[in-house]
């Protein structure tokens, strides 16, 4: 076993997962300034939404271009209920998740009757409708002015979520829960049903899988993730506007997913963190940063079509298969009986003379 194989095995062990959690817990103590903690917390919030997209796109194979719109629905639900109606933050937070699930169900029942690019185009229209409603329905959403003074999550004891570091840990907790739930879904019978649908609708139907029910369930799970992330985002930035529903956010999340690895467990997290920090590191280039960022992204997609994590897992699977095949051949050669020397009359006569 070479060094690269040992590294790949190490990254899949529970010890590595524990190290990652400890590193996340210690990050505020080693960060250079409070802004870096803020950026990391924001990346955690976006990662939650990307995990939702991974369910509908990575597992189920349906490209939902309205994902950013449902992110905005969660943000606006929380903002409207807390600012205009005086709801406590956590009750409004639950309502934001429920609203994302209900509206996702309604949109999914209609849109999932379509397939492939027709479904993607339809959801793109749904996302644009959400944007128009937020921008033009001034009595409800405050229109282009947006909503300000959104309350932060209610703290407890000495914990004050209006401060950056406590909110960082809150976002970390929600992200870890999101990853845990995504892993449970992916490894369950439901996750296998989603993957069968991604491979082929006809294959899934032949296995007795209810296509519409599973597609709608995947859509609802993804929009719930997006709405929860949107609500956390609203409580973090304390101001939202119609731009939160812009389709640009959807394409940002698709980029995070492509870079990390579609359909993988750690791909959404890796892609979100990598692109977020790469973008931050290129801030000094101002409007010219895309000259560097664009070609880097193109090269990454060309040479890592499955994303960084997806390519790594593919390589690891091939490597393990080769090692197992070699071990099987060696075991077969050891068990193969050795040919005995045949006894001929000449040999027998020579033995007698001896």
Structure, explained:
- With 354 residues, the chain is an all-alpha fold.
- It has two domains: 30 residues, no CATH class; 275 residues, ABC transporter involved in vitamin B12 uptake, BtuC, CATH 1.10.3470.
- Helix content is 75%, strand content 0%.
- It contains 16 helices and no strands.
- α3 packs parallel to α8, α4 crosses α11 and α12 packs parallel to α15.
- The longest helix has 29 residues.
- The radius of gyration is 27 Å and the shape is globular.
- The relative contact order is 0.15.
So, CATH architecture of the largest domain? Orthogonal Bundle
The share of residues in extended strands comes to: under 5%
Residue stretches low in confidence (pLDDT < 50, at least 5 long) are 1-11
CATH topology category name of the largest domain? ABC transporter involved in vitamin B12 uptake, BtuC
Q: Major sheet, described briefly?
A: none
State mean pLDDT (0 to 100 scale). 84
**Total strands:** 0
Q: What fraction, in percent, of the residue positions are helical?
A: over 70%
Along the chain, the helix and strand elements come as HHHHHHHHHHHHHHHH
Taking the alpha carbons of the first and last residues, their distance comes to 52 Å
Rough outline: globular
The number of helical segments is: 16
Number of domains: 2
Radius of gyration: 27 Å
CATH C-level class of the largest domain is Mainly Alpha
Q: Which secondary-structure class do the elements indicate?
A: mainly alpha
Protein name: ABC transporter permease
Keywords: Cell membrane, Membrane, Transmembrane, Transmembrane helix
Biased composition (Basic and acidic residues): 326-337
InterPro entries: ABC_transp_permease, LivM-like
């Amino acid at each position: 076993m070479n060094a690269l194989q040992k590294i790949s095995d190490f990254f899949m062990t529970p010890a590595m997962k524990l190290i990652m959690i400890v590193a996340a817990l210690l990050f505020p103590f080693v960060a250079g300034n409070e802004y870096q903690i803020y950026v990391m917390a924001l990346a955690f919030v976006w990662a939650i939404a990307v995990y939702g997209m991974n369910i509908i796109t990575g597992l189920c194979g349906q490209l939902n271009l309205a994902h950013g719109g449902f992110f905005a629905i969660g943000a606006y639900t929380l903002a409207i209920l807390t600012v205009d109606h005086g709801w406590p933050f956590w009750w409004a937070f639950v309502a934001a998740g429920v609203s994302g699930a209900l509206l996702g169900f309604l949109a999914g029942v209609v849109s999932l009757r379509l397939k492939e690019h027709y479904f993607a185009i339809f959801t793109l229209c749904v996302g644009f409708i959400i944007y128009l409603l937020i921008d033009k329905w001034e009595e409800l959403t405050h229109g282009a002015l947006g909503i300000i003074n959104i309350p932060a999550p209610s703290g407890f004891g000495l914990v004050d979520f209006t401060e950056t570091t406590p909110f960082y840990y809150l976002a970390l907790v929600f992200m870890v829960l999101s990853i845990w739930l995504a892993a449970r879904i992916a490894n369950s019978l439901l996750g296998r049903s989603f993957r069968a649908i991604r491979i082929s609708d006809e294959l899934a139907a032949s296995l007795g899988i209810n296509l519409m029910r599973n597609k709608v369930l995947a859509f609802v799970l993804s929009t719930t993730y997006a709405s929860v992330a949107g609500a956390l985002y609203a409580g973090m930035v304390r101001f939202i506007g119609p731009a939160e529903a812009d389709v640009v956010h959807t394409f940002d999340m698709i980029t995070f997913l492509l870079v990390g690895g579609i359909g993988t467990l750690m791909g959404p997290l890796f892609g979100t963190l990598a692109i977020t920090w790469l973008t931050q590191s290129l801030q000094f280039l101002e409007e010219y940063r895309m000259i560097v960022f664009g070609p880097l992204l193109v090269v990454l997609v060309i040479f890592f079509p499955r994303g960084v994590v997806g390519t790594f897992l593919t390589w690891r699977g091939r490597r393990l298969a080769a090692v197992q095949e070699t071990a099987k051949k060696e075991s077969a050669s050891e068990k193969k009986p050795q040919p005995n020397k045949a006894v001929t009359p000449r040999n027998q006569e020579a033995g007698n003379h001896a």
